[in-house]
Structures are given as structure tokens and as C-alpha cells.
């Protein structure tokens, strides 16, 4: 084995090992594809770049099959397996597309990486909107898990929680409906966050990276998707349409909002650079991402202001010096 092959094997083991370990952690489960994208340029050909992705996917699948082996004989057990593999599958496919489209513009790489997650999200929502007996049993299992989590959060291990049973069911039902309405944009946000962190790490010694980020812009014609999808959402709400139609239209609308949030972040970066503020875009995006997901109140500011900033640039020129 020559030096080049030894280097390839070393990077393969590092990428697969670190990625798989991260996938077993609760927080790392959303970040485990970053090492795969960071180390992809270390390989000399496309097969070498994608091999770690395939190996990590196989390891995750094998691990989940072993862990769920006693439940796979029932249909609800298989459904729970699919649910557990949904986010890892979306992120793995997205990382493979991101790696394979290295020569494309960043915006098109991102859109292509999100495609599988968006389509899969639509399919899952449609599937779960048609309740069958196995799905109802899965729903019961997930509800009991939800009750257990509430019990632990309230500091009691009793089967009877301080909240009324009807109130608990109402909160659970509302949570499920919300997840169905935000699944596609959630996948887009997770894919974008992982891809950006990988890209920013690769460009950590590149002084022009922040400048390039400040120039990101959504294609102009996507404004019609944004305006049209939100118009459809409003009309469906006024018409009191069924949940499935409203959930699918809201996924499209929120998905377009995610794209304009990226443009909004680019505008913020541009303003900071114009003011002479040293910008670490990796930290800026990480902080914004955490604010959007973790801090009530502040997250509403992030979720609404950034997309609004991006959308209004269709009519207001914010970046005049480019």
C-alpha cells in the first residue's frame, strides 16, 4: 500500500468513526454528517468521497436493526424503525448530494441537497394522515412516551400527572399536527446548518469566505413561490380546508421562508462587514440557529425577521456596494 492509499484509508476511518459516534449522541444526531462533508475533499475521486457516507449509512441501519430486532415482527415496530431512521436518512442523502455537486453554485447545491428531505417529508405527512390500525398503535406508543417525558419534567414518576388527561392529549395532538406542518422546513434547516458548518470549517483560513457569504442571494423567480404558497395557506385557512392540504401548503410556504432566511443572514453579514465588524460567519450562523430553536421569544424574532429581510430585498436594495 503506497502513501496515497494509506492517507485515503486514514481519512476514511476518521470520517466513518467520528460520524458514526456522533450519530449515536442525542445532539450529534443532527451534526454527524459534518465530518463526512469536511473530509470529502481529502479523497481523490468521487467514489472515495461517497464511500464514507455509504459506510456510515450501513452502520446506522445495522445498529438500528439490531436494537429493534425484537419489535420488527410487528408492523408498528417496523413503522417506529422508519421514524427513527427518517432524520439520519435525510441528512445522509443530503450530504451525498452536497459532496457530489461540489462544482455547482452554493444555492443550487443546497436546493439539491434539500430535495430528498422535502419529498420524504411530504410522503410521511401523507402516509400518517391516513390512520390505519398499526399507525394508531404507534400513536399510542408515542403518546405514552410523551406522557412519560411530561412526568419526568414535572418531577413525578406517577402515572397520573398534575395535568388533566384531556389537556395532555390536547398538547400531544397539537404537537403532532405542528410537526407535520414544519417537517420539510425543519429538514431544510438541519441540512443547511450541517452543510454551512462543514463549508465554514473548510474555509476557516480563507479571509474571503465571509464576503462570499454576504453575497448569497435566492434566485429572483422564487419570490413567486413564496408569495403564492403563503396565499394558498391563507385561502385554505379561510376555507377551513382539511389538515393534509393545510399541512402540505404550509410546508412549502415555510420551506420558501427558510431560503429567504438564508438570504436575510447574508444581508446581516453584509451590514456587519460594511460597518467594519470582524465576522466569524460560523459562529454567527450557529448562534442564530440555536436562538431559533432553543430560546422562546427570541426564536420568533429570528424566524420572522430574517425571512422578511430576505424577501423585502426583492424591492429594497440593501447591498449597494456589491
UniProtKB/TrEMBL annotation:
The chain crosses the membrane at residues 12-38, 50-67, 79-101, 107-128, 176-201, 221-239, 251-273, 293-318. Keywords: Membrane, Transmembrane, Transmembrane helix. Signal peptide: none annotated. This is DUF2232 domain-containing protein. It comes from bioreactor metagenome.
